[in-house]
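request received
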Amino acid sequence: MDKAELDRAFSELYRAHLRDVYSYAYYRVGDHHDAEDLTEQTFLQAYRHFERALAESDGRPLRPWLIRIAHNLAANHYRDRSRRPQTHLDDADVLRTTHTTEDLAEGRDELRRILAGVTELPDDRREALVMRFALGMDNREIARAMGRSDGATKVLIHRAIKQLEEIVRTQGATA
Amino acid sequence: MTEQPGHLPDIEALLRRALQPVEPPADLGARLESRLSTITDMAAEELEGWELSAMRDPREWPTIPRAAAAAAIGTAAGAGLVVLRVRAGHRKRRRNAGDPLELVEDTLRAAVDETRKLLDR
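response:
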């Protein structure tokens, strides 16, 4: 593949998955500014290694590879700076960003409880749910993005949902 | 089917509603494309500037692949591709070259060609 073809392929990848990477970044870091930075860094890194990734992908979708880059960058960012996301997913700003007014009118409290529950999950469970429900990735894609087996990913998602149910139920009982 | 007390009605549907995809800001795409181009342009300028000075000073000739790498690593993405290709080519050329001056000239030419290819996007 020559340089022009490679660049065309990268443009297609970028246009197809900008929203996926941004959504993942937003749910990972919780605010627009950091999500934009993370998205930019992800695509710059992806561009640098695109040729090799394309050769090694053997025709498989590259979305998991992109999300894995974003995941690693975010993990390094928080490890290096010893800091955690400051915004919680159930904050009013986040809810306004991710939902229509109609959605909010119908069930703001319900959505807030779910998002608050998601925030309480361990990182790997939370990320798996974001990939499944916000990005619409299937088990195999999530497994590749997280560097796990398909079976382990299925179990991870199942446990994440069970734990979330438990958290939300407890919240409901104490509210 | 009877619902158990306290059981949540279809938690997956609730999750689907709660975790909506987030639209990136409208200008993010344009900004990112412009940033990639800028990086590529900067790398091209650095390479061209360095090329002229290196050509004038024979003491610089043996450092050509290293200098190209430093310029590109400093500026990242687009330039990284230039350097990886130039360095790979340099290794091949070194194996085949009889004359060191010819090797230097070939490597310089490859660096400029790769940069132009990037700029021709």
